[in-house]
Recover the amino acids of this structure.
């Protein structure tokens, strides 16, 4: 393999994909410059996304559990929320992690520039630094990891402090009495859950027939039932026709066959209808990089664009817009840059919705199989038969396997329940390793745990589950 110690690499964007790629490249001997507007690496995920939202979701789940404790003979008084301390704690989590990444950059001798980058040509970046100064730097290779931003519905755009996107909602400036969440996707439901736990009456509006479009309905059902109790309202098959600010709040007008109340005033409105790739990079037209109609930068399986010197990873190259997908793409791109024969071809990219209960899935879903006319076998293990779930007083979960009926290979895994996000990794490994249902069945899992529901789902497939009766196949 060629000597890469003099190869100059610029990584534009310091999110999980960008910093992971920069650190790996430095470990492999490249001279790396990492460029990002923030003081330290971290990107949207650490500063305004994954990390602060999960910190707040932890608090909301704690509040919910304190209410549930009445079932166990333990009663707590209603929690007193010190919003300033809650914000400070959330921000301390962010500062600790981003500060740690700053130290790791220095330890790896990654040159970090706080600023924004644009192209002068395929190998030269014009960098505008945070202090207002600028400079042009030439690189052998450039890796774009510019991420995404909240999508905006032009018809619902109002210049008002009462309007929030996901970034504004995470600032937690106050706890509104009422909140309208436009969009029933994972970001809207996660943030809606936080505000509901803090005492806000939350109404969610989704234009389609169910929450979390794309996820299997049997996984969403337990969450929907719980949210019906936590939220003030869930309006499906409904669109927000207009928003108008008044002295008392934002007046929303709804449109839908099942809408009973056509207008309602909310103290605040959160618009959460997806994310848009940050592909409007200054000077990108001076390169050979191509952008598709949806705004995604086009790349091959090595994450290389149509310009041989430029690679791109993460949200800016397409769905799913997930931090862990970006990190693995970053590894592939760096290894391709140094000449290794690699390709980004995962069989499963896990998705997790950190609501209560959590929902997680990987690989082929039952919904996708039906849409594609693919024959599958489905095995489900209800958590009502799980000893561990019952000791947690959370039997409202389920573990399901999507299997090839002929080979019995694991094609997909779906889990809804407490800790589903931590459990799904076993499913991802099973899919990537081409495991069979029998492999899961014969793998000894500790008892009593939630992880053994994966094993028991396989036992359901064979009709041998100890805790769920199902006649044997054949």
């Amino acid at each position: 393999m060629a000597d890469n110690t003099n190869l100059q690499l610029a990584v534009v964007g310091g999110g999980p994909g960008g910093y992971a790629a920069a650190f790996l490249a430095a470990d492999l001997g490249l001279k790396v410059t990492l460029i990002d507007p923030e003081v330290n690496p971290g990107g949207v995920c650490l500063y305004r996304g994954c990390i602060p939202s999960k910190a707040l979701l932890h608090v909301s789940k704690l509040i919910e559990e304190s209410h549930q404790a009445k079932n166990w003979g333990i009663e707590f008084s209603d929690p007193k929320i010190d919003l300033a301390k809650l914000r400070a704690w959330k921000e301390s989590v962010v500062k600790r992690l981003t500060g740690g990444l700053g130290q790791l950059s220095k330890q790896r001798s990654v040159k970090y520039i706080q600023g924004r980058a644009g192209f002068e040509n395929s190998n030269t970046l014009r960098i505008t630094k945070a202090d207002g100064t600028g400079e042009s730097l030439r690189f052998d290779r450039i890796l774009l990891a510019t991420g995404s931003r909240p999508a905006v519905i032009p018809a619902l755009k109002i210049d008002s402090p009462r309007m929030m996107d996901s970034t504004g909602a995470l600032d937690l400036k106050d706890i509104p009495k009422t909140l309208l969440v436009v969009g029933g996707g994972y970001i809207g439901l996660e943030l809606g859950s936080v505000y509901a736990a803090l005492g806000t009456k939350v109404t969610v509006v989704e234009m389609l027939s169910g929450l979390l479009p794309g996820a299997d309905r049997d996984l969403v059902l337990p969450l929907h039932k719980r949210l019906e109790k936590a939220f003030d309202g869930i309006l499906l098959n409904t669109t927000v026709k207009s928003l108008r600010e008044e002295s008392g709040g934002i007046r929303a007008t709804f449109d839908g066959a099942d809408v009973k109340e056509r207008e309602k005033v909310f103290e605040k409105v959160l618009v959460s209808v997806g994310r848009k790739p940050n592909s409007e990079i200054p000077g990108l037209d001076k390169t050979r990089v191509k952008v598709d109609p949806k705004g995604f930068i086009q790349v091959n399986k090595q994450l290389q664009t149509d310009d041989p010197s430029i690679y791109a990873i993460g949200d800016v190259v397409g769905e799913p817009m997930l931090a862990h997908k970006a990190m693995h793409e970053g590894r592939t791109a760096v290894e391709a840059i140094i000449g290794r024969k690699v390709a980004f071809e995962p069989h499963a990219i896990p998705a997790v919705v950190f609501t209560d209960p959590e929902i997680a899935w990987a690989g082929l879903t039952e919904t996708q199989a039906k849409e594609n006319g693919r024959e599958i076998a489905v095995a489900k293990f209800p958590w009502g038969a799980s000893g561990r779930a019952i000791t947690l007083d959370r039997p409202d979960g389920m573990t399901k396997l999507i299997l090839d009926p002929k080979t019995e290979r694991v094609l997909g895994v779906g889990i809804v329940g407490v800790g589903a996000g931590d459990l799904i990794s076993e499913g991802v490994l099973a899919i990537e390793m081409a495991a069979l249902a029998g492999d899961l069945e014969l793998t000894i899992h500790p008892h009593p745990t939630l992880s053994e529901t994966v094993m028991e789902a396989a036992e359901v497939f064979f009709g041998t589950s100890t805790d769920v009766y199902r006649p044997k196949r054949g």
